[in-house]
Design goal:
By secondary structure, the chain is an alpha+beta fold. It is built from seven helices and five strands, in the order αβααβαβββααα. The strands form two sheets. Strands 1-5-2 form a three-stranded antiparallel β-sheet, sandwiched between helices. A two-stranded antiparallel ribbon has the order 3-4.
Length: 212
C-alpha cells in the first residue's frame, strides 16, 4: 500500500495517492537479460534510441498496462526524476516496505565503525542476493486495499558482522560485485550480463550489436 511507503519517508518524498492505494514493485531477476532484453533488442533493433534496458522495461510494463484496459495504471520507472532532480520514487524503500527485498542501512548496524563517512544502504533479496534490480512501480489509483496486510522483508543478512561486511563492500568496493554474494544465492548474472553492466553505458550498444 502507498501508505506503507509514505509512512517511512519525509513528506517531500511522499507519493500523491491515498494511503490504501494498491501498488506493485517490479524487480528484474538474473534471467531478465536472456528472456527479455536480448529478444527485445533483436526485435526492436532499429527503434532503440536510449538505454536498451530502460526501453525494454518500459516496453514490458506498457504491455502490463494494456492487460487492464478498464483500470487506471500509473507507471514510475527507477530512473525517472522530478523537475527538482529528486527521484520519482525511492526504489529501495519501496522494495523494503513491499516485503520484496531487505534494505540494509547504516541504522541496521549497532556498533557503527564509519565515523563521519557517508554510507549508502543496499537491498538484498533472499533468493538472488544482490543479483537483481528494482525497475519500477505500478500504481492502481482506483483500487483501494484497506485490509491488505504488510509482509516483512526477509532479513537474510542477520548478523552484525555480515551487515558491516555488506555495507563496506557496497560502499567501498562495489565495482567488484562481491556484495552481491553476501548470502548463498540461487541464481546470478551470466558472464555476458556481467560484462554488459560493467561496460560504460555509452559503449553498451556496441556489445549488443547496435551501432552508436
Amino acid at each position: 500500500k502507498v501508505g506503507w511507503y509514505n509512512a517511512v519517508l519525509q513528506p517531500t518524498f511522499h507519493l500523491p495517492y491515498p494511503d490504501d492505494t494498491l501498488a506493485f514493485v517490479v524487480l528484474s531477476t538474473p534471467s531478465m537479460f536472456d528472456k527479455a532484453l536480448k529478444p527485445f533488442v533483436n526485435k526492436e533493433r532499429l527503434k532503440i534510441i536510449r538505454d536498451p534496458v530502460d526501453q525494454c522495461i518500459s516496453h514490458h510494463l506498457s504491455r502490463v498496462k494494456e492487460k487492464f484496459p478498464d483500470q487506471r495504471v500509473d507507471v514510475m520507472f527507477d530512473y525517472e526524476m522530478l523537475p527538482s532532480r529528486k527521484p520519482k520514487f525511492l526504489a529501495q524503500t519501496a522494495a523494503h516496505v513491499a516485503g520484496a527485498a531487505y534494505y540494509y542501512q547504516r541504522k541496521d548496524v549497532k556498533l557503527d565503525p564509519w565515523g563521519k563517512k557517508k554510507i549508502f544502504g543496499v537491498c538484498i533479496h533472499p533468493k538472488y542476493g544482490g543479483w537483481f534490480a528494482i525497475r519500477g512501480l505500478l500504481l492502481f489509483p482506483d483500487i483501494q486495499v484497506p485490509s491488505l496486510e504488510q509482509p516483512s522483508p526477509v532479513d537474510c543478512v542477520s548478523t552484525e558482522e555480515k551487515r558491516i561486511e555488506l555495507l563496506e563492500q557496497f560502499n567501498f568496493h562495489w565495482q567488484d560485485g562481491r556484495y552481491r554474494d553476501i548470502i548463498e544465492v540461487k541464481e546470478r548474472y551470466s558472464e555476458e550480463q556481467k560484462a554488459y553492466f560493467a561496460t560504460p553505458p555509452a559503449e553498451r550498444l556496441r556489445l549488443l550489436g547496435l551501432s552508436q
